[in-house]
Amino acid sequence: MAVKEKYQPVLDLGEQLNIQDGDVTVEGDILKIKGTAKTQYEKNILWDKIKEIGGENPSDIKANIKVADESVYARHIVKKGETLGKIAKHYYGNAAKYQAIFKANTNILKNPDLIYPDQELVIPNL
After folding, report:
1. Angle at 24 between CA 22 and CA 27, to 5 degrees
2. Which parts of the chain are beta strand (E)?
3. pLDDT single digits (tens) 70-106
4. pTM score, whole prediction
5. Following DSSP, what letter does each residue of 67-87 receive, concatenated?
6. What are the CA-CA distances from residue 77 to residues 117, 118, 120 (Å)?
7. Do the Cβ atoms of 78 and 117 come closer than 8 Å?
8. What is the domain range of residue 118?
9. Cβ neighbours for 55, distance < 8 A, ≥ 6 positions apart
């Protein structure tokens, strides 16, 4: 299997995430990709997909992924039925870290139990 086809799911994910300044080349048996993700979270998603396909230390892909906004881990649009705990579990793997999200958003949130659909929350770097 050619290396570009092997990592096609990574390239597709890059398009879905709207990675900027993207470039993909093949040199021999190595796929070289570069681009800029909006946030560290999106960069992590790309790396997780690379590792899912190529293993923990893949030798057939070289990725240079930069982050446009390093001041936050992610930005999240609240969906119906979500809580800060659910959002913290999604991004950090730990619902108890909801307080960090609340503290980063006190400009729009007055109570951690009251969030509303379509609010854009900053998910801070921990």
Report:
1. 150
2. 20-27, 30-37, 61-67, 74-77, 120-123
3. 999 999 999 999 999 999 999 999 999 999 999 999 9
4. 0.87
5. ES-TT-SEEEE--TT--HHHH
6. 7, 5, 4
7. yes
8. 74-123
9. none
Cβ-based burial of 1 (10 A; exposed 0-12, middle 13-18, buried ≥19): exposed
> Which residue reads 């990709």 in tokens?
33
How many whole angstroms separate alpha carbon 65 and alpha carbon 19? 9
Report the C-alpha gap between 106 and 22 in whole angstroms.
35
Of 76, 6, 13, the closest CA to residue 48 belongs to: 13
Residue tagged 């509303």 (tokens) = 116
Choice between 1 and 51, residue whose per-residue pLDDT is larger = 51
58 and 95 housed in the same domain = no
Domain total of the chain: 2
Shared domain for 62 and 11, answered yes or no, is yes
